[in-house]
Amino acid sequence: MMAGGLALLTAGCGGIAPPPMAPPDPATLATLDRFVSNDCNPVAASALTGIGIPASDIRGANYGIYRDEFRDIIVRWDAWVYLHSQPGAVVVTMDEDCRPIQIYAREGATLPGRR
Questions:
Q1: Which one of 40, 79, 93, 115 counts the least CB within 10 Å of its CB?
Q2: pTM of the model
Q3: CATH number at residue 63
Q4: pLDDT the model gives residue 15
Q5: Closest CA relative to residue 50, chosen from 12, 90, 77, 86
């Protein structure tokens, strides 16, 4: 039963592509560091830089943490980044080692170049 559930869970992730990455803009990294201290900030800044979100548009940030309830270890991070230019948030999802998984918009936000 557990193996089937795991296969179903991972099968749903097959179409997810990592976000476009770029060297992190130092201003974007400094802005994230000002709002929240997290080892994944450089990767989140790289993803934000990669999709063209400037530091000047960031009005806040925080992290969602996902843990494996059986082993009590972190298995995923979501960096929620709030922008001046729009409602909602841009979310950068990373694995337990801060490797990028995806980037998407929530609660009325849109990614640059998309509607």
A1: 115
A2: 0.83
A3: 3.10.450
A4: 58
A5: 90
Sign for the pseudo-dihedral over CA of 49, 54, 57, 58 = positive
Q: What is the pLDDT of residue 114?
A: 64
Q: What is the pLDDT of residues 36-80, one digit of tens each?
A: 999 999 999 999 999 999 999 999 999 999 999 899 899 999 999
Residues in the chain: 115
Terminal CA-to-CA distance of the chain, rounded, Å?
A: 40
Q: Is the dihedral of CA 40, 43, 47, 48 positive or negative?
A: positive
Q: How many domains does the chain have?
A: 1
Domain that holds residue 85: 18-106
